[in-house]
């Protein structure tokens, strides 16, 4: 694994304070922590990202995944590390308007691009409709997968609106919104607590569908 | 992850040249397979050449009435493309049966063709694997090999090819377009693109050092009814135990390609020729020379039953 693990202890010590801080404060802090680090092997590379509407300039080991960049360098710890192999979806973020697994991509590959994380979707004072719906419909239990679920859910509704078909689409040219579609499209986000039915209810609610 | 240097390629030829001249260099496109393997130190490139910005992301009609798919077209975009949905529905269906929404947003056409096996012995660096470490042996031959290949295998390797997309492309007689380090273009029929393991399972494609995939060309549409049936342990987001890509013609002819059972996307003339004789005959023809183990012998039955299901569905709609 990468040397980014070395900073985890320090990060955990500060995490309680960060959790209490508003996302705006966390973003402001992002610029302050974006300082060059030394490492044993790879030459550091400059990377410029727009994260949740804010430009950040970083010096990164090219091995740094986008996920570790967000969590360890920008201290945006809403995005979660589950499997770190693209199997669980906890790290899902929206890059240039599309949901991806941030663990399976390098930050240097996204130089100049825009990233939206759970912190950028809404704030505790002004929740994104999907965040609100997850609360209303109890779309989580432990909550660890929730930021990834919500980022994915927001993007899924956009994908359906754009007419992008899925494995559950009966006629490839007639994309509609139903439970089978939502379940199929959300299959890249695993929830160990099995909050799936309530996640579907939250998504239907946001999509303006009647919820049973 | 081992250290590496990184560059963003500015032209296809520069990328090919760099890949041929730097020892241990690899192209990176979507990265969804390569980075996973790099984290496990199964892949340890010394230099990554990022090919994401080479403009190979278009889908165009060809003079021959077919379609040219840029190597960097994402799986999501290829599956959703209007002409692909219309004329090559089996390809859309195969793509949509693979991976997750997040992965399809990243994974590319060229990268999907080159994705590596999901054999658990290839992934477990504590186990011998001739593909990962030539000459070390094969842990899978006598091991837990339920998901592994039964066709095109050898004493050195029984790894299955994991791609759904490539199965549909094999069915459609696609051609893989490349550029070599010397700037020369080459067209490789997909039937010749993936190599069988033989004694050299670490060699997986016909690509030469530095050679880069620029596009995949599909011949003009063949019409017919397109289907892709994937059988797996979960309803979504799992690799195939068996998959069948098929195009049924109105006159009772059909062509078939298979995933999950071969060391490469599997298609035989004999299976296509047996189309009018029904599922059992097609299965027998496709499975000629199959070499199974105690754990994966079920795949033969599963192939026949999957075909039977497609035939029944076809009759019901006729």
Overall mean pLDDT of chain B: 97
In percent terms, what proportion of residues of chain A is strand? 5-15%
Name the helix and strand elements of chain A from N-terminus to C-terminus, one letter apiece.
Answer: HHEEHEEEHHHHH
Strand order of the largest sheet of chain A: 2-1-5-3-4
Q: Which range best describes the helical content of chain A: under 10%, 10-25%, 25-40%, 40-55%, 55-70% or over 70%?
A: 25-40%
The shape of chain A is globular
Which stretches of chain B of 5+ consecutive residues score pLDDT under 50?
none
CATH superfamily of the domain at 225-316 in chain B: CO dehydrogenase flavoprotein, C-terminal domain
CATH architecture of the largest domain in chain A, please? Orthogonal Bundle
GO molecular function, one term (chain A): 2 iron, 2 sulfur cluster binding
Domain 2Fe-2S ferredoxin-type (chain A): 45-121
Protein name (chain A): Aldehyde dehydrogenase iron-sulfur subunit
EC number (chain A): 1.2.99.6
């Amino acid at each position: 694994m990468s040397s980014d693990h070395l900073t985890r202890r320090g990060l955990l010590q500060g995490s309680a304070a960060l959790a209490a801080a508003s996302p705006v404060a966390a973003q402001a802090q992002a610029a302050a922590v974006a300082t060059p680090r030394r490492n044993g092997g790879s030459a550091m590379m400059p990377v410029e990202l727009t994260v949740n509407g804010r430009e950040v300039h970083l010096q990164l080991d090219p091995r740094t995944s986008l996920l570790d960049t967000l969590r360890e360098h920008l201290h945006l710890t809403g995005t979660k590390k589950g499997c770190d192999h693209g199997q669980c979806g906890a790290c899902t973020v929206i890059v240039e308007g599309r949901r991806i697994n941030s663990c399976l991509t390098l930050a240097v590959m996204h130089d100049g691009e825009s990233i939206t994380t759970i912190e950028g979707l809404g704030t505790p004072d002004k929740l994104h409709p999907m965040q609100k719906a997850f609360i209303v419909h109890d779309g989580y239990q432990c909550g660890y997968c929730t930021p990834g679920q919500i980022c994915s859910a927001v993007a899924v509704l956009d994908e359906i609106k754009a007419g992008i078909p899925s494995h559950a689409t009966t006629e490839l040219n007639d994309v509609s919104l139903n439970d089978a579609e939502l379940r199929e499209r959300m299959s890249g986000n695993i929830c160990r607590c099995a909050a799936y039915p309530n996640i579907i209810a939250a998504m239907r609610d946001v999509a303006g569908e009647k919820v049973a | 992850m081992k250290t590496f240097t990184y560059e963003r390629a500015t032209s296809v030829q520069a990328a090919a040249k760099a890949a041929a001249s730097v020892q241990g260099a690899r192209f990176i496109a979507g990265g969804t397979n390569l980075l996973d393997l790099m984290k496990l130190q199964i892949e340890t490139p010394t230099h990554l050449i990022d090919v994401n910005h080479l403009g190979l992301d278009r889908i165009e009609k060809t003079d021959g009435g077919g379609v040219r798919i840029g190597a960097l077209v994402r799986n999501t975009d290829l599956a959703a493309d209007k002409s692909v949905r219309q004329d090559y529905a089996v390809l859309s269906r195969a793509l949509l049966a693979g991976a997750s929404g997040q992965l399809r947003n990243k994974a590319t056409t060229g990268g999907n063709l080159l994705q590596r096996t999901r054999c658990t012995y290839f992934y477990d660096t504590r186990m011998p694997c001739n593909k990962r470490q030539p000459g070390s042996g094969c842990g899978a031959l006598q091991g837990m090999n339920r998901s592994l290949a039964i066709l095109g295998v050898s004493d050195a390797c029984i790894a299955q090819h994991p791609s759904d997309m490539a199965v549909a492309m094999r069915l459609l007689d696609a051609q893989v377009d490349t550029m070599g380090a010397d700037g020369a273009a080459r067209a490789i029929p997909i039937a010749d693109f993936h190599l069988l393991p033989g004694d050299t399972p670490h060699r997986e494609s016909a690509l030469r050092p530095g050679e880069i995939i620029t596009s995949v060309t599909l011949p003009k549409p063949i019409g017919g009814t397109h289907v892709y049936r994937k059988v797996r342990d979960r309803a979504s987001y799992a690799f195939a135990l068996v998959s069948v890509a098929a195009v049924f013609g109105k006159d009772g002819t059909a062509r078939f390609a298979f995933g999950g059972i071969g060391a490469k996307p599997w298609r035989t003339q004999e299976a296509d020729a047996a189309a009018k004789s029904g599922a059992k005959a097609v299965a027998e023809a496709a499975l000629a020379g199959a070499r199974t183990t105690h754990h994966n012998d079920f795949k033969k039955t599963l192939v026949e039953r999957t075909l039977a299901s497609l035939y029944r569905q076809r009759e019901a709609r006729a």
